[in-house]
User: Fold these one by one.
Assistant:
Number 1:
Amino acid sequence: MNIKAVKGFKDILPQDSPKWRFVEEKAREIFSHFGFREIRVPVLEKTELFRRSIGESTDIVEKEMYTFLDKSDEYLSLRPEATASIIRAFIEHHLYTVDPIAKLYTIGPMFRRERPQKGRLRQFHQIDVEILGYNDPRIDAELILMLVQFLKDVGLRDYQIEVNSLGCSSCRPIFREAIVDYLNKREWDLCQDCQRRLYVNPLRVFDCKVPSCGEIVNFAPSIKDYLCESCNSHFAVFCESLARFAIPYQVNAKMVRGLDYYTRTAFEITTTALGAQNAVAGGGRYDGLVKSLGGPDIPGIGFAVGMERLLEIIPNPPELREENPFLFIAALGELAQSLAYHLCNTLRINGIPVEMNYCERSLKSQLKRADKLRCPYTLIIGESEIQENKAILRDMRSSEQVLICLNDVFEKIQWLYREGKR
Ligand code: HAM
């Protein structure tokens, strides 16, 4: 029986890799203009980390984590997101003592055991960005400006930016009380999951996809009527700053995000091109998270882009670099094979991508392979050429062939390669 990949886990095949790399390289380039540096964190963490940050009663922690009891009698989980791990590393390595402001990003796989469907995988990839140390609302807008620039540069056209404020530890409890009060009166009309959520985490009812719960939520009290003065002014300056950069946005007071650590600013980038899984990116502020995980009282804000979803809806970039070899060596006969073997690897270690055939094939089939690999040049070496200390260099586009001396081959190819790169 053939072994297949695990459900919801996908291979990224060679033909798709250039697009992935293009997106990753664009992210690195733009983030570096804004002063971000890369951090790489493990894919496995203590389960406790996610329980305490994302929240015990979120869908991610309750139902979606890949968790197991390690031989050391400790529960470990594959990371469902990167924020918690980055904050853990930030605290563990006292990064705040090096610089009071940390601007970090990471790119890598995340794991959530959700029901796989279009745009929803069990292993998916995120580009995750975090800023620690600022509570200025202009930073919130700056982060969105950077995200928008990135999305534009990778070719995303139609999307919406939804923003909201989730309040802080002083105003959110009052909103929560109002919600509980409202939902309590409608408890029996809620789905069973939401009836339970009402007691453990009532704001999660806002995320419910069941239509009858959506109806109830539509008439629920709105967070914007409960924000304290300080949250109100934070949100106002944030919105003004977005407008200053002409970033179009919509306020969505129903957007609560699926993770519990958020405070104040929350945002999502959505698109109609993806069907039900319409969020390409999401993020927000988490001013209490560092402290709650045992670090100093340092505010933070960040976002993550879902790479599979983004790649699905952006066009192939025109400047996609081909990964084709520059030269194919078609060798005929044992002596030619041995010479080609040496030449091919000498050129490669000198930085020129070269390919050859190791099994004896006709010239026709070797030229066919060179064509398929889209090599601009083929070097043909046969027994008679060797006797004359020559090789044939064929321009694959024009089919023009020239004889060159074997002693000059290395320099000639090197020269052509450099010229071609200009
Ligand atoms: P999130 O909204 O859970 O936020 O995920 C961010 C993005 O990851 C989503 O908008 C979506 O594009 C992608 N995504 C999530 N789940 C899946 C899935 N099962 N399959 C494919 N793509 C998926 C976070 O993860 C936060 N850590 C973001 C953040 C960073 N907040 C502050 N800093």
Number 2:
Amino acid sequence: MATRKKYIAGNWKMNKLTAEAVSLAEEIVEGAKEAKCKVMIAPPFVALSEVKKIVKGTNVILGAQNMANEKSGAHTGEVSIDMLKDVGVSVVIIGHSERRILYGETDALINSKILLAIKEKMNVIFCVGETLEEREAGKAFEVVTNQVINGLKDVTEKELSFVTIAYEPVWAIGTGKTATEKDADDVHKIIRELLEKLYSKELAQKMVIQYGGSVKPENAGALLAMENIDGALVGGASLKAEQFLAIINSVK
Ligand code: PEP
């Protein structure tokens, strides 16, 4: 079986003014020096350049929370991939459920962003996950399967080296409810089996699949011990250095 390096990413969402972002980044950089996993932080766009100065030359990667699906032009309010590269971003979160639900992002739009990112050699954390309604209707596997198929449309096996998948059940995001380790691992396994069908066994074994949804120091160890869970995309707990570092340090 392939050994997959654990990957812990912090999505700061619409939190932290620049000075606060800088000091949080400083604490994370300091505390993550000996991390056994890959570490990423995704501050708000306007704090990226200042946070870049803090993470430069360290083992903490700079991420963005979203990007436009067009390279440039008349797209008021959008942020382009070149702008992200210009400030030192090397990975972008695409298809987060808040973008899908609050801002109407469709699978097709998400797919176009993923294709653009790959073309421009930008790494991607591609988020998928079902709502509570969908889970209760017994449709979790079907919803996630469709999101993966549609989001990765026209992405080749080779290009998937730019992609990490994050399974984030919408009902567990910011709610304090976590999927049980078994429920989460079951969906991760479905995703891995789907990748094997769509691509190859080798690719499926290599793919890093993060879990997201109220990951905290108290539950991180058990989640990360599951066979198919290769890391975490952390929201709330990534806003406090102590908690985020405890999650990082739960990777032995
Ligand atoms: C997220 O938004 O990606 C997330 C998982 O948030 P939280 O950890 O707060 O549930």
